[in-house]
Amino acid sequence: MRWYTGCVEREGMQRYVHLIRAEDDPRDDDRPRGRAAREAGYDRFGNLRAVRKADVDQLAARIVELLEDGRPRTAHRIMVDAFGVSADAVFDDAPDQALWRLVDECRVEHTAYAPILFRIRRACSDEMEQLDLLEVT
Fold first, then answer.
1. Cα–Cα distance for residue pair 94/54, rounded to 1 Å
2. CA dist., res. 137 & res. 117, Å (int)
3. Helix (H) or strand (E) holding 5
4. Phi, psi values for residue 34, rounded to 5°
5. Which of 92, 79, 61 is nearest to 118 (CA)?
6. pLDDT tens-place string over residues 77-108
7. What pTM, to 2 d.p., does this model score?
């Protein structure tokens, strides 16, 4: 599997590709709700409305914290595991912006084909040029 970082073309249909779920992604009815969600640690952001309006920097920090375990995840799994919401519910909102900010800042890398996986950037080099898609081995 090849990993990329840097700016990504997100025009037209490309804006939606990261929303495609993997077979093992949680289903909407698998997510904890209410008290179970709070007990699972989703209480920091409360509900969908609060997550959508949360500070992008705080959301980005939570995504980094989640991805530090080294496990690649789809955008959907990131949103469910970190915030208790599905990726399509927060598309273009603060959590989605936080994920793409991390990609643009080269802190998170991703695969190029659906389902798109994200992980903390493993290879770091000050000599790498910032291209539309930088291949990371």
1. 6
2. 15
3. strand 3-5
4. 55, -125
5. 79
6. 999 899 888 899 899 999 999 999 999 999 99
7. 0.79
